[in-house]
Write a structure and sequence with these properties.
Layout: H1 2-16, H2 20-31, H3 35-54, H4 58-63, H5 65-92, H6 107-119, H7 122-136, H8 143-164, H9 169-172, H10 175-198
Length: about 200
């Protein structure tokens, strides 16, 4: 049980920081668009990566650094592009959050963006596959419990973030608040892209 709790606590703390993926989930929660599948996609992707880490795939990434390099530059390009779109939306558009009139992005496009935020982000691999995978080796026979705790943490976090966002909807019905969110998201994307290129 201690392995499970440790996995849950560490997994939750690693994804708690505001990042590109979390910002996207928050935005979808505010818009109430394809929210369940977005949360499920993020949590399931984390579950797959955590499982690979516990099974020892972290060693493969360390052996073949080209995998990490490809994700680094591909992720930086994607995040920069999304950052530009967010800033442009804040400048060009003037919209309050009104679900009845909010433009709906197709499910396919939404999930494609969601997958990109997860699988093109090297930080996700470092946190889930390498870090959690490495720490799980300390638990030997209970490593699977550690991994299960980390997986549960991802599901709890993403669904809480996505569905908890609706509590902020009255605030984001003001056009100025939505513009500020778009700018913040854009800046987050740029900062993460910069850390990928510099790091």
């Amino acid at each position: 049980m201690s392995a499970f709790i440790s996995g849950f606590a560490l997994g939750f703390s690693l994804i708690l920081a505001i990042g590109a993926q979390n910002a996207f989930v928050l935005k979808q929660g505010l818009k109430k668009q394809h929210l369940f599948l977005v949360c499920l996609t993020c949590a399931t992707s984390d579950a797959v990566l955590i499982t690979l880490g516990v099974l020892g795939f972290g060693a493969v990434i360390q052996t073949f650094p080209v995998i990490e390099m490809a994700a680094r530059y591909g992720g930086a390009a994607f995040l920069s592009g999304y950052g530009v779109l967010s800033i442009r939306s804040a400048i060009v558009k003037s919209h309050a959050l009104t679900p009845a009139t909010e433009e709906v992005t197709t499910l396919a496009k939404t999930l494609a963006i969601c997958f990109a935020f997860t699988w093109l982000n090297p930080h996700v691999y470092l946190d889930t596959v390498v870090l959690l995978g490495s720490i799980s080796t300390q638990y030997e026979t209970t490593a699977w419990q550690f991994g299960l705790g980390a997986v549960l943490a991802s599901f709890v976090f993403f669904f809480s973030l996505g569905y908890g966002a609706r509590l902020l909807i009255p605030f984001f019905q003001k056009p100025q608040a939505w513009k500020i969110l778009e700018i913040i998201i854009g800046l987050i994307m740029f900062s993460i892209a910069a850390t990928l290129l510099i790091g």
